[in-house]
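Re: the multi-chain job from yesterday

Posting the exact lines I submitted so nobody has to dig through the queue logs.
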Amino acid sequence: MQGEREVVVCRLEHRPGRDDRMTTHVGLTARALGADRLVLPDNATQAEETVADITERFGGPFDVARTDSTKAFVRDFDGTVVHLTMYGERVQDVEADVRRVHGDESVLVVVGSEKVPFDVYEHADYNVGVTNQPHSEVAGLAVFLDRLFDGRELDREWVDPAAVVVPRDTGKRVVDPEDAPADRVGDVENASGDRGDGHDDHDDH
Amino acid sequence: MQGEREVVVCRLEHRPGRDDRMTTHVGLTARALGADRLVLPDNATQAEETVADITERFGGPFDVARTDSTKAFVRDFDGTVVHLTMYGERVQDVEADVRRVHGDESVLVVVGSEKVPFDVYEHADYNVGVTNQPHSEVAGLAVFLDRLFDGRELDREWVDPAAVVVPRDTGKRVVDPEDAPADRVGDVENASGDRGDGHDDHDDH
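And the result, structure tokens for all chains:
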């Protein structure tokens, strides 16, 4: 987040078609929960496009880029490398260490897919398990980021959004920050249009 | 979790094929992060099977069931209903309330998909946004459960697992709790077999 050392999320591998939705969710979760930057494999074009599109609509700063070698990117990263894996050390045991390190240097969070080569385990400064149970790389990333930032990411502000969701106890309210001052905006039911409902379906276009 | 009021996760809708992986990740996340029970739409047979299979392999208790009307299930639920939506109140503003209520009654966490009907917003005791940004229902569920349980879910114990992952700083170690006492098990590289690597691909079979 702004004013802090950079946090980068790298999705190690991607299978076009099959992984489009998961990779997109990894990217949108990285953006929403405080990371500064997303690095994707070269073939993850659709996920890159969706994340860039959401950033344009809902604000930044958040960068997304593709690379022809995520492994080289991980190897050459200047900072601390955290690899999320169900085989790793328990997040509750290492999170304080990682938070301390993040005070001094950038942090790269590596999210796997399919088989992760052993040298990623070896190269990582921390192999971290958000539980040692099989579940979801999206869930692991979300809990890790929330704990890394100690909840600060929930209060971050977004620069230049075209649309702002106003939190409310029932229904939906989306405002255009330029066209509609806060005291004149009405309730916009289903204004989210093709962005889907709730947290789902952000790759549906 | 055991010794506490029940927490149930309900996935409101499901599109076979298209949603199989997301619904499975919702289910595995619910199990790994402390929920007691998962309720799925009738057509989510593959996700149900995978979650039941993982529970048999990695331990319980965790129940999964399908219903021909998730809407009726939500409407008739005896307890507090929390609907996760990017349009809802900020999780950091309502989580203390929900935790307090959970001391006295069961909690149902509703995870949407596609369009959520307005009566779900109206019926819910809390509409809660894990950020008011578009990201992933899996990420929202994960952060919500971690905050609801205040991290206690990471220390829960599993009953009758066939396989146990031993947290470690590099590589993978999976042990069979029946066949191999802790002091004699070796390092089992890639012992996870078809369960995939890390937190991914648990619906690959």
